[in-house]
Every structure is written in structure tokens, then in C-alpha cells.
Automatic annotation (TrEMBL):
It holds the Pfam family Bac_luciferase. The keyword Flavoprotein applies. Keywords: Flavoprotein, FMN, Monooxygenase, Oxidoreductase. InterPro entries: Luciferase-like_dom, Luciferase-like_sf, SsuD_RutA_monooxygenase. It comes from Nonomuraea mangrovi. Gene3D superfamilies: Luciferase-like domain. This is LLM class flavin-dependent oxidoreductase. Residues 10-210 form the Luciferase-like domain.
Length: 275
């Protein structure tokens, strides 16, 4: 099992502090989100995700750095690939790129993008991820669209890695099919669901993904983003139970949010035990 830490820092001092903690503690990955504003409270500080990742790439040496998840509500796939390649160079080949369909109406409103209905969201996710996959694989051919047309794309310089790992957030059958067709990893999270309901849904989604990947002769890494109704820092035993529970249904990696001040004592105990 691999472990990652996700931090949405309010200041650069906080971002730098958690980068040092995560690397020294032995975490495998250091992640941040990609939102223009906090979805619940506009006064809560939110920084640009790719910018924070680039800075982390410059001040760390071992830990992998990544975006969970790039919000396609206000990013063009060709521009996102250019950003990804640049971050990959700064990190000397330690960058991973997650993509999601942009579920928060607040992000759409701030970006001036209409909130998509489920059918259009699914269509856009398939096209967006397909463009990113092709470009990261070196295919810079023109595309007519309908949602993300481009022409004359260039992938110069090429990534440091042979391929930047591509992660896709999905829960429904259409999104899971995009994962099976294009992604190196799948990420899922509870959203507003209760933990037991999410767990049972994850079992079913895992089976669906198994079948889709089996048809295509592919395997993908499976990442749990542990937040919401999942509380990894409630106690050391709760953390251990979470790991055991989700490892049993095929997850390879768990990414936890940075602890709140009142959770820090448990976090430190978990790190000392599992490092």
C-alpha cells in the first residue's frame, strides 16, 4: 500500500511546512487540489493548484507530487498538458496528473462556464481525457472537437518520464470506461455519501472497472482519496482499519488530507507506526 498526503494550503509557509513533513515522514505522494475558490466559504484561502505543485516540485527531492484533481471546468486539455510537462521537468520526473469533471457549481460560476448536465459532463470527460492521453503519448495531431478542438499542438520539450501518470476521477459507468480506456490510475472519494454506503459502492465500482479493464487487457492503479465521511486521523486503530478495509477491495494507494490541529497527535503516531 502506498500513502499520500493532500494539502490545500492557505499560505506558502503552510505549503512548504507540509512538503517538508510529508517528505521526511516517508509519504509516497504529496497532492493538492485545483479550485478557484472554496466551494462552501469564499473567504477561505485557495491557491492555484498547478502553481503550488510547481513550487513543491522545486523544494522536494524524493516524494512524488501531483494534482488531485485538475478541474476541467476551466482548463483546456492542451494547456493542461503543457503545464504538466513543465512541472514534470521541475520535479525531475516526479509529477502525476489527476483529472476530474468539475462537480462544484461554484467553480463553474467563477470561471464563467455553464454547469453541465450529466450527459454533457460525461462527453466532455471522455474527450478531454482522450486529448490529454494522446498528447502525453506523443500524438500531437489536430482534433476537430466537438468540445476541445485544437490544431498545431506541440509537445516540446517532452516529459522527463516516459509517460506522466494519468489519473481520472470517476464513479459512474461512463467515467469508469474512460478510466479503462485512457488512465494509469483511478481515484474515487466519498463526496456527500456515508462511509458504509461509499464502501459498498466502491466494491461495485471496482468490479465494473475489473470487467472493463479485463476487456481491454489493461490494469490501473486504484487510489482512495480519504476525506469527508472517512476520518483517518480519528485514532491509530481507525487508520489501520481503514487501510485494511480498502486494501481488501483492491485499492493500491490511500491519499489522506493533512490533519487539522486537533488531529495532529494521531497523525504523528500513525507516521511513527507506519513509516
Amino acid at each position: 500500500m502506498r500513502f499520500g498526503l493532500k494539502v490545500n494550503p492557505g499560505t506558502w509557509q503552510e505549503a512548504a511546512q507540509w512538503a517538508r513533513i510529508a517528505e521526511e515522514a516517508g509519504f509516497d505522494g504529496l497532492w493538492t487540489g485545483d479550485n478557484l475558490r472554496n466551494s462552501r466559504d469564499a473567504a477561505t484561502p485557495v491557491h492555484d493548484g498547478p502553481t503550488i505543485i510547481t513550487a513543491w516540485a522545486a523544494i522536494t527531492t524524493r516524494i512524488r507530487v501531483g494534482l488531485l484533481i485538475a478541474n476541467m471546468a476551466y482548463r483546456r486539455p492542451t494547456v493542461l498538458v503543457k503545464q504538466a510537462v513543465s512541472i514534470d521537468h521541475v520535479s525531475a520526473g516526479r509529477f502525476e496528473l489527476g483529472i476530474g469533471s468539475g462537480l462544484w457549481p461554484a467553480d463553474h460560476a467563477m470561471a464563467g462556464v455553464p454547469f453541465w448536465d450529466p450527459r454533457e459532463r460525461a462527453e466532455r470527460l471522455r474527450e478531454f481525457v482522450g486529448v490529454v492521453d494522446r498528447l502525453l503519448s506523443g500524438d500531437t495531431g489536430d482534433q476537430a472537437g466537438p468540445h476541445y478542438p485544437h490544431a498545431g499542438a506541440a509537445l516540446s520539450p517532452a516529459p522527463v518520464q516516459p509517460r506522466i501518470p494519468l489519473i481520472v476521477a470517476a464513479n459512474g459507468p461512463k467515467g469508469l470506461a474512460v478510466v479503462a480506456d485512457h488512465a494509469d490510475a483511478w481515484v474515487t472519494f466519498t463526496g456527500a455519501a456515508a462511509e458504509d454506503d461509499f464502501y459498498q459502492a466502491s466494491v461495485e465500482r471496482g468490479r465494473t472497472l475489473d470487467a472493463l479493464c479485463g476487456e481491454r487487457g489493461r490494469q490501473v492503479r486504484r487510489i482512495l482519496l480519504a476525506y469527508g465521511s472517512i476520518t483517518p486521523w480519528a485514532s491509530v486503530d481507525d487508520f489501520a482499519r481503514m487501510v485494511e478495509r480498502y486494501e481488501a477491495i483492491g485499492f493500491d494507494e490511500i491519499v489522506c488530507y493533512a490533519p487539522k490541529p486537533e488531529e495532529r497527535a494521531v497523525f504523528d503516531k500513525v507516521v511513527s507506526r507506519f513509516a
